[in-house]
Amino acid sequence: MLKAAKIISILVLAVSIMAFGPSKHKQGRKHLENGDYTRALEVLTDALNESPDKPEIHRDIGITYYKTSQYEQAVSELDKAKQKLDKDGNVMFYLGLTYERLKQYDKAIEEYSNYVNLGRFDGIKETIQKRIYQLIPKQAEQWAKERMEFEQQIDAASIPDNSIAVTYFKPFSVSEELEPLHKGLTDLIIMDLLMIDDLRVLERERMKEIYEELGLGSTDLVDQSTAPRMGKLLGASTLVTGAFTGLGEDKWRIDPTLGLVKVGEFQKLGSVEGEIPGFMQVEKELVLKVLDSLGVELTPEQRESILQNVPTESLQAFLAYSRGLNYMDNGMYEAAMQEFESAISLDPGFTQAEEHLTGAQFLSEPTGSIGDLESLWNSVISSDDGKNELLGITLDAIGQGDVDRVPGSELSGPIEPEPVDEISLEVIIRW
User: Fold this and answer.
1) Taking the CB of the first residue and of the last residue of the chain, which one, N or C, has fewer CB atoms within 10 A?
2) Do 192 and 305 belong to one domain?
3) Do 35 and 71 belong to one domain?
4) Mutual angle of helices 89-101 and 55-67, in 10-degree steps
C-alpha cells in the first residue's frame, strides 16, 4: 500500500510539473539548449540564488561554462553537481570533455570510464570507450615528459616503499621467434603483481614511455647505471628487471634482479628455469620469488589466485600475443590486430588477447575531434522538453519497479536501470 501511494504521489507530482509554467531553471535550460549561453548563464545563476542546494543547476551552469570555453569554471560547477548526482551521465560526460580540453587526460579518462561503466546508451558508450583507449597513450606520454621536465625536483625519498615497476627482461641466446617473450613476460608479471592490493604497480604504458624518453630500446638491459634514474622517473622504489636466456631448443632460464632505487643497490634473486612450453610455471615461480624477496606475505587465497592466473597454456598463442604487444607499442595497430587474432585462433579462451584486440581496433581508427564526440552526444541523448523527459523517466522507473530511482524534480541525466560490464582499465593501462 505504501509503495502504491508513493507511485500515485509521484505521478501526481509529474503531471503537476507539466501543468505549471517553467521555473527559472527550466528557462535557463531552454536557453542552454537553444545556444543562447549568455542568457542561459544569467537565468541559471538566478535559479541558483533561489535554490543554492540544487545540484542540477550547478550541472547546467557547468555545461554552459563548457559551451563558452570557460573550462576551469565548468569543472568547479560540475564537481559541485557530482557530489550529489554521482550517477548523472551529463555530469560524467561533460567533466570528461572539460578535462580533455584542459589536457588533464588522467581525469578525462576517469570520467569517461565512469560513464562507460554506468551509461545506458550503447550508441555513445562504445564511442566513449574508444576515446578512452585513444587518450591513454597521450596521457602516458604527457606523464613521462612531465617527469623528465621536473626530474630534478623529484625526491626519491618521497617515493612510496610499496611502489614497484617491472621493466623488460633482456633476451640472451634465444631464437628470433622467442625474443618477443620480453614483452609478454613483463605483461604477465604485472598482471600477477596487480593481484596484491598492498603493492602499487606501475602500468606498462608509462614504463614504455620512460624507456623512450631515456632513449632505451625495449631489449636494453636496465643495470646499476640506469636503474636509479629510471626508478626515480617511474616513481617506483623497486624495479623488477633481469634477463632470460635460452638453454638449448626447449628450455630457458630467467635471472631476475631487484633494483632498490632508494639505496641504489641491486639484489640478485637467483635464477628460475624450466621448459619453454611450460613458460607459465616458470613465470609463477619467478613472481613468488619476487614477492618473497619484497617481504610480501601472501594469504593462501592470494597465492592460489596467482597460480591460477593462466591466460593461456599455448606457447604459440602467447608468442603471438607478445608480438602483438610489441606492435602496439610501436603504433603498428593493424599488425597488432593480426597477431591478437592469431593468438585467439590458437586459444579461443585467451581473453587478454581479445581485450587487446579491441584496443588495437579502436586505436587503428581515426581519432575524431572533441566536437565530433559532443555532436554525437547531442544526437543520441537529446533534451527535447524537460517536462516530458521527467514524466518519461518517472514512468520508466515505475515500470521497472524501482521507485527510489524516480527523480523528485528536474531531470538529472540519463538513468541507468541495467547494470553493464565494467571496462577493464587494468588491461588497457598495461600497454
Assistant:
1) N
2) yes
3) yes
4) 30
d(CA 315, CA 294): 29
pLDDT digits (tens, 9 = 90+) for 293-326: 988 999 999 999 999 999 999 999 999 999 999 9
Q: Specify the pairing of strand 251-260 against strand 272-275.
A: antiparallel
The contacts of residue 238 (CB under 8 Å, 6+ apart) are 163, 164, 165, 231, 258, 259, 260, 261, 294
Q: State if pTM tops 0.90.
A: no
* Number of structural domains in the chain: 3
Express each pLDDT in 95-105 by its tens digit: 999 999 999 99
The rounded distance, in Å, linking the Cα atoms of 306 and 64 is 49
Looking at the fold, whether 302 and 319 belong to one and the same domain comes out as no
Query: For residues 315 and 277, is the Cβ–Cβ distance under 8 A?
Result: yes
Q: What is the rounded CA–CA span in Å between residue 115 and residue 90?
A: 9
pLDDT tens across 9-25, in order? 655 555 554 444 568 89
Per the CB < 8 A criterion, the answer to whether 290 and 271 are in contact is: no
Domain end, chosen from 309, 326, 355, is at 309
Q: Is residue 346 part of a domain?
A: yes
298 within domain boundaries: yes
Residue 376 covered by a domain: no
Of 329, 291, 64, the closest CA to residue 184 belongs to 329
State how far the Cα of 162 lies from the Cα of 47, in Å rounded to an integer. Answer: 49
* Residue numbers of the domain that contains 220: 154-309
Q: Are residues 158 and 304 in the same domain?
A: yes
